[in-house]
């Protein structure tokens, strides 16, 4: 459930619609520290400081997968009275859905929780343009324990934001979320 403090933080983050135009596409710290070519004695300076659109997309998809497949602290420990902890990296992840039936799922709540987690922990996605939608179709009856989410929005990048469209399948038996790039838009 999204608290008043979390709503205020989301509203504050939503005002972050763009970053300084002088910023370049840079990898996150983890990617800077990851040695893709350990056989090389000397790293190329450009590859450690600037990335292209494809690398950005790959990095965001990987990080979203980690985020959505991590159970947050709030789901196992009450954080009432600790509003700042609720929105900190200590609470990284989402509420688990493993073991629930499709009929028990509150779709609106799932949408809000996933959206809040993305806004808190994925700053490369512009919060004002982010939409998370539960998708139920007749074909979903065949996969009665799989919930589909559509995640769409724009990634911050220079010279202009790139659109993305992702489909997430949530296995309600295991809780595992699989993210697929649907290839619509620029990402």
Automatic annotation (TrEMBL):
<dbReference type="InterPro" id="IPR053176">
    <property type="entry name" value="T6SS_TssE1-like"/>
</dbReference>
<dbReference type="InterPro" id="IPR017737">
    <property type="entry name" value="TssE1-like"/>
</dbReference>
<protein>
    <submittedName>
        <fullName>Uncharacterized protein ImpF</fullName>
    </submittedName>
</protein>
<feature type="domain" description="IraD/Gp25-like">
    <location>
        <begin position="55"/>
        <end position="159"/>
    </location>
</feature>
<dbReference type="Pfam" id="PF04965">
    <property type="entry name" value="GPW_gp25"/>
</dbReference>
<dbReference type="InterPro" id="IPR007048">
    <property type="entry name" value="IraD/Gp25-like"/>
</dbReference>
């Amino acid at each position: 459930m999204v608290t008043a403090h979390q709503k205020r933080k989301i509203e504050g983050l939503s005002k972050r619609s763009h970053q300084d135009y002088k910023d370049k596409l840079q990898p996150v710290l983890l990617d800077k520290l990851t040695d893709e070519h350990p056989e090389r004695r000397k790293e190329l300076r450009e590859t450690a400081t600037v990335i292209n659109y494809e690398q950005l997309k790959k990095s965001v998809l990987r990080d979203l997968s980690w985020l959505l497949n991590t159970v947050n602290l709030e789901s196992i420990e009450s954080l009432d009275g600790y509003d700042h902890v609720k929105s900190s990296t200590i609470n990284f992840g989402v509420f688990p859905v493993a073991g629930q039936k499709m009929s028990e799922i509150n779709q609106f709540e799932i949408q809000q929780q996933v959206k809040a987690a993305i806004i808190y922990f994925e700053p490369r996605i512009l919060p004002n343009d982010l939409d998370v939608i539960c998708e139920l179709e007749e074909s979903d009856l065949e996969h009665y324990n799989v919930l589909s989410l559509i995640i769409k929005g724009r990634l911050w990048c220079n010279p202009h934001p790139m659109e993305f469209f992702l489909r997430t399948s949530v296995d309600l038996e295991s809780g595992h979320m699989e993210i697929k790039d649907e290839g619509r838009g620029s990402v």
